[in-house]
Amino acid sequence: MDALSCILTYIQLxxxxxxxxxxxxxxxxxxxxxxxxxxxxxxNSLTNNATIYLDLRIENENSLIGIYYEDxxxxxxTYLPPTKSSGSxxxxxxxxxxxxxxxxxxxKQIQLSVVVQxxxxxxxxxxxxxxxxxxxFVVDLEANxxxxxxxxxxxxxxxxxxxxxxxxxxxxxxxxxxxxYASGSNKWGVVKWLMTxxxxxxxxxxxxxxxxxxxxxxxxxxxxPSN
Length: 227
Hints:
The chain crosses the membrane at residues 7-27, 201-224. Keywords: Membrane, Transmembrane, Transmembrane helix. It is found in: Membrane. This protein is of the alpha+beta class. The chain has two domains: 2-25 and 191-223; 30-187, Immunoglobulins (Immunoglobulin-like), CATH 2.60.40. It has helices at residues 2-27, 119-122, 124-128, 190-223; strands at 33-44, 49-59, 66-69, 73-80, 90-97, 100-102, 107-116, 134-148, 154-166, 176-178, 180-181. The mean pLDDT is 77.
């Protein structure tokens, strides 16, 4: 009898652990992690224009939840003058990205290019001052996403990244830059942690009832004497 009680207790603990694990996965709506790779500025000496090439790497780290990115996603590139004054910032290019779906634990690679008119005339004053070791840009990404779960939770994302470009080579000083969210955090709040307890108990009860019904069914089928 003691051995049977230990086995049942062990099964109960295993079921509760499984229920708690799945509860945490279902409640953890982590926003995607976005990286800016290979930011390059290629100039055209004939037209004084330039083309900015960049790669977006979007990672969905959720184990069970897919993310739908609503159409469109807006990307803006801003030139940051050496004065560092927000009023003197110059928006030099914009790009629209079509919406898409990203499954759980998937990585999405997006290659973009933006043509900039008279980019180097905009930065010429900085060149003449002899301080143009690097040219500073700011990349902003704005998107609306939905977590594909029961309630389809919707979130508005504002992500930003500063980029330093070598004035001689036109390539970014850092090859990979993690973009930062303007507000909020992926970390769990107190409410979500408190919700895991009753929900995990509910899942545990459901799993336990399912196991009990399965046990009763197989007992009836295999142990019931046939006529």
